[in-house]
Predict the 3D structure of the following.
Amino acid sequence: MRIALFATCIVDAMYPSTARATVRILERLGHEVVFPAGQACCGQMHTNSGYFDAARKVAANHITAFESVEYDVAVAPSGSCVASVKHQHPMLAERAGDTDLAERATAVGAKTYELTQLLVDVLGVTDAAEQLGSYFPHTITYHPSCHGMRLLRLGDRQLDLLKTVGGIDVVELPEADACCGFGGTFSMKNAQVSTAMLEDKAENIRSTGAGLCAGGDASCLLHIGGGLSRAGSAAGTLHLAEILASTLEEPAEVPSTTTGATR
Amino acid sequence: MSSTFVGMPTLPSQRGHGNLHAEEPFPQAATRELGNSQLRANLRHATHTIRDKRLNVVGELPDWEDLRQAGSDTKDAVMADLPAKLDEFEKNFTARGGVVHWARDAEEANRIVTDLVRATGSEEIVKVKSMATQEIGLNEHLEEQGIAAFETDLAELIVQLGHDKPSHILVPAIHKNRTEVRDIFLNEMPEVDPDLTDNPAELAMAARAHLRQKFLSAKVAISGANFALADTGTLGVVESEGNGRMCLTLPETLITVMGIEKVLPSAQDLEVFMQLLPRSSTGERMNPYTSLWTGVTEGDGPQNVHIVLLDNGRTNALADKYGRTALNCIRCSACMNVCPVYERTGGHAYGSTYPGPIGAILSPLMTGIEAEDNGSLPYASSLCGACYDACPVKINIPDILVHLRGEDVKAQHAASRVPTEMDLLMKGAEIALSSGKVLNLMEKALPLGRLAAGRDKKIKKLPGKLAGAWTSSRDIPAPPAQSFRDWWKKEGRS
């Protein structure tokens, strides 16, 4: 299969190892990965902040970038960006009365998948150790991000895949389904409320004793990791793509603060 | 007029007034409330308890999703045909001896109610919990006119005696624990036993004794309504304590103040809504008391029955294509019990009678986004979506929040030519993110970020109010030496 990678702006700029891990997983399964060079961002930040005109320009760029390349499906290691492409792009176009753009947006959205959605539903991956050779000998806990959980209805796909990684120990996160408080510009506009939510999330992570919190959204992980770091916590965050891509021969680089939690 | 004309004189749709406003910007009010650790503990305990109860009873119904859909469809149909439904209700209510009054806004509704009470010669009234009268500030208005209004719902009574405001639509005293309640009773009920403890049963008995006296003497009652049935002109109230029933049956005059969106086509619709409402609100399979009344029955119950049909910005909300489904709300409060923002700030931070996620959309839809500080309300959410999942009539609150943010940005830009910090941030991001080429160029500066991060590879302070707010409690990791896109190119891939 020819798979177009939507790296997302945060992963591209801040967490390139997550995108490289995504490529490794897909290539290990025998697929060809292409990277539409014109891509930049889904425009979620603009949309969610009410800047619809700007958001539409960002969305149009994404649509054009993914139309200019031949591929079977597109994938992103981020539930919220996929939700934005699928749900917000057509909405932005419709609001502006641009039916042509709305149709194009819907077409691109229909071919776009979140990473574990693609792995489980399309590529039939149910056992990461067996099918991907995943090996990650650490204790982790897992935070399901809101958009994956509620907009994309990912269910247990992410957690179930993580549990099948060789050598891993997955401990349950109390109040896992509670938002971490990121919410894009919410974390700036309502910084104190966001911080209160983050503190509870960090406390729940600490209570598990796991040195790492895994998740499927780089932005939530940036937020949670930023809070853990500021609190001087020994725990860090890691994207699940890096855990799935980790093997005995080529282990994932684990945040330095977590080495003590290695099994 | 648009298709939202609802049978009132041909005037433009009215903006809502009264207690529908944030009293100060939400972030400011929220920050203050966050500092109250007792409040946070009370709220956390209460919302989590109701949340768990709700999940249990909702889980018992295999057809819960079908029920939600049916509730949503019924409400959509009513809103699409509201003028006709209200006409039908008016005809049937009147035919059975009731009197219908139409109120465009809070002021008009207050005036109508005051005149009706005055006509009875009574200077005291009892009330059964009514959001609509909270919304219009009726108690305060009556007090100014020399009429004393006594709340009879226990939680409302606690709030009233405590000279406080409700902070939840179902559990208005959710922010008070039982020790605080005992103190309020000791201070405000002259007849109460000075040795009153904070045992809930003792507190309930004290309130009961206090209220019984009011029920037996009151000649006039004011109620809200959970629904109005168009085909029979019937009104209905759903409650837990039975105090509502006392109000609805004992006095001679009964005045109901109800928002125009509460109308349902027929009694058959109760099959759906009486399953959705109690399970979503109190986590009960059925609420203890459901009262239905239709007009006047000679020699039995109130002999003068009135209804004030209140617009107060509802037609304004109805005219909003993207926001109108907010009127489908049945006031169950499930959205606030699952909201991580409400859980930490409580209802007072929202200013309006309608707090939480539904309030964050309903208040600005009714008043217009430009009204005072209501523009800050749609931002009081991380858009986590828990409210949408919990809503028994499937109001897509996150989508409406986003829509209203768009309305706010539009209004801000229309009002001012000076770009805000947010405008500049968004403009910069738009330029960077509208093209792969530009983003690639920007990413060349990533090593600068590494420099700023210093030896511990963390950025601890960013300039500006907004970015600075982020780093007030969160570090940012040092950016990588190379973006993914750069790596991809250097690998010679396509």
